[in-house]
Amino acid sequence: MAKQILVKPLITEKADLLTEDLGKYVFVVNKNANKVEVRGAVEKMYNVKVASVNTMIMPGKTKNRNTRSGVLRGTVSGFKKAVVTLKDGEEIDFFGEL
Q1: Best exposed site among 6, 59, 80, 83 by fewest CB in 10 Å?
Q2: Which 3-state string (H, E, C) describes 25-81?
Q3: Quick check: is 59 in a domain?
Q4: 44-64: per-residue pLDDT in tens?
Q5: What is the CATH number of the domain that holds 82?
Q6: pLDDT of residue 76 exceeding 60
């Protein structure tokens, strides 16, 4: 079975600013995926031409939650994200026709 490379697009305020200003799109990707695989997956899925890919591994964070029985401590898993820059004139529409 082939591994899934693109997990989901990352829709945050910071990612939205990157998209509007610089034409960059942010994706959560498989931790074992490399830049070449990410480029191929984006080009195949969205039918666009990719200029460059930057990847980074985001560390996990600890979270605390107050409950009746006390404080629950846990961790949120780390993940790998990719910032994909498209060639001029290309764009991805995540929301389609809402």
Answers
A1: 59
A2: EEEEECCCCCHHHHHHHHHHHHCCCEEEEEEEEECCEEEEEEECCEEEEEEECCEEE
A3: yes
A4: 999 999 999 999 999 999 999
A5: 3.30.70.330
A6: yes
